[in-house]
Amino acid sequence: MAIFLTKESKVLVQGMTGGEGMKHTRRMLAAGTDVVGGVNPRKAGRTVDFDDRAVPVFGSVREGMAASGADVTVVFVPPAFAKAAVTEAADAGIGLAVVITEGIPVHDSVAFHAYAATKGTRVIGPNCPGLITPGQSNAGIIPADITKPGRIGLVSKSGTLTYQLMYELRDIGFSTCVGIGGDPVVGTTHIDCLAAFQDDPDTELVVLIGEIGGDAEERAAAYVRDHVTKPVVAYVAGFTAPEGRTMGHAGAIVSGSSGTAQAKKEALEAAGVRVGGTPTETARLVLTRLESERVAAQG
């Protein structure tokens, strides 16, 4: 009941010994994540105590993978070092790199995404909250106590809206929630997650959260139309955004009617996706659709 991250995942944390790395490593461990090591060349050979668990610090991702069998890394390094961190992880052959860091220069993101692709490393982010498979593993900064395991898959550009929908649908629960990030260039896309949820036998419905700017949601709509048989419910942030104003997310670039919330809503609805006007309405649409699916199955 998961995509990309399961209870079997073994997680390294690049930047674990920094302030954010320490705080969120503790939270990941509390959520049941198998954090097998940190990476810091200056502190290699030490261990860090997190309550009842001592986590070793390795000098490199390659060393950590060799010693622990790690297959996931979570990147908490400063923006200037993010490109090198992801490149190092890809060179080591890690399967999944979750890049939490925000403020990474776009040219650095372009470079490490392209490089990781040549090495077979999936990148989630940057500038993202990571992903969580409730009850199994949590790689990033998503709160683990606001939902439970269930049958909804969620993919979102927005961290805050990820948390809100997780909370509003907590009685149903989630298979996996993936925060892909809102930068102009991200690794894993809405489409990648839609494909994975389509193939996951325990995901019954997918929630897609987008926002103004770019054309990712329009491309996702086309993919849903052609390839997804499971119900999809969506929310697009930015219907009330004033024209001609700079938005918070780096990817929220609107030009004319291109990239507007209305244009995205129309594309999604044309593909058979129900689109909520607010996060709360979106949650209600999910509940209504799940109930109709249940009734149809009984009939």
Describe what this molecule looks like in 3D:
- Substrate binds at residue 163.
- The active site is at residue 249.
- It is a single chain.
- The protein folds into 2 domains: 11-124, NAD(P)-binding Rossmann-like Domain (Rossmann fold, 3-Layer(aba) Sandwich), CATH 3.40.50; 146-297, Succinyl-CoA synthetase domains (Rossmann fold).
- Strand 6, helix 4 and strand 7 form a beta-alpha-beta unit.
- Helix 5 (159-168) crosses helix 9, helix 6 packs parallel to helix 7 (216-227) and helix 7 packs parallel to helix 8.
- It has 299 residues and is α/β, with parallel strands linked by helices.
- The chain has 9 helices and 14 strands.
- The model has no long low-confidence stretch (mean pLDDT 93).
